[in-house]
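Design job #97: recover the sequence.
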């Protein structure tokens, strides 16, 4: 998980001892907030080894450098990143930390052909291709650049094992003592907590307002103050609710969103 349920409970003002219904509602909100954040980013930001990933669309054509616009109070700023004019394969899970193995086999038929992706079809990093690393162990663009010739034009003929994503320490914003490559990705965790809390407070407010005699600020009240019946109604609404990213959460996520080409 990107964030923890305890972080969401603390943000909601809930103590360490909560009811089973409250725990169910927090768990549900947590799961849906994580899904909303992954959907916004267009990838799972947790660090994993992705094995046997097949490129979906075959040949990567020469491209201009990808770019995005950010803004401050007075100006729109264009930020270019990646490599222009190169044969590029775009990996999905950012940042790419390493590529373990890459095969290119135009006769593989997505791995279904006999002898597909044999050792002879492996490409050599630094000779046949290279990873667009910003620094050692960190490629924010997640792009592989072909050195010699072009990538295969046959769909599902390129297979990759690679490590991508942010470590638990990076998602917590805790740099390691070892000096290993580090990216502060705590904004992603913050967006999960914010999304869960905002959605729950909105639904809790609608439940409270629906009851006669609602008075007082919602922010000072606990989920338990709504009672078992209203809590059940909130759980039912959460189960059918698709969470949306708030503007504040989107600002936290913007530096980590995927702006690549075809995703694999």
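Job complete. Output follows.
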């Amino acid at each position: 998980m990107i964030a923890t349920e305890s972080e969401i409970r603390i943000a909601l003002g809930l103590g360490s001892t909560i009811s089973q219904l409250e725990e169910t509602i927090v768990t549900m909100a947590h799961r849906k907030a994580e899904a909303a954040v992954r959907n916004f980013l267009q990838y799972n930001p947790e660090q994993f080894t992705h094995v046997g990933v097949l490129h979906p669309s075959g040949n990567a054509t020469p491209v201009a450098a990808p770019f995005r616009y950010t803004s401050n109070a007075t100006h729109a700023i264009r930020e270019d990143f990646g490599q222009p004019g190169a044969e590029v394969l775009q990996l999905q899970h950012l940042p790419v930390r390493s590529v373990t193995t890459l095969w290119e086999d135009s006769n593989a038929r997505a791995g279904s052909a006999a002898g597909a992706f044999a050792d002879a079809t492996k490409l050599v990093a630094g000779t046949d291709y290279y990873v667009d690393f910003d620094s050692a162990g960190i490629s924010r663009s997640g792009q592989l650049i072909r050195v010699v010739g072009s990538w295969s034009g046959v769909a599902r003929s390129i297979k990759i094992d690679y490590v991508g994503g942010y470590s638990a320490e990076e998602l917590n914003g805790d740099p390691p003592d070892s000096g290993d490559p580090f990216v502060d990705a705590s904004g992603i965790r913050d967006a999960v907590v914010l999304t869960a809390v905002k959605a729950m407070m909105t639904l809790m407010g609608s439940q409270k307002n629906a009851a006669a005699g609602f008075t007082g600020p919602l922010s000072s009240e606990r989920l338990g103050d709504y009672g078992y019946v209203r809590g059940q109604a909130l759980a039912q609404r959460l189960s059918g609710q698709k969470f949306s990213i708030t503007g504040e959460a989107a600002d936290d996520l913007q530096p980590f969103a995927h702006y690549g080409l075809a995703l694999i």
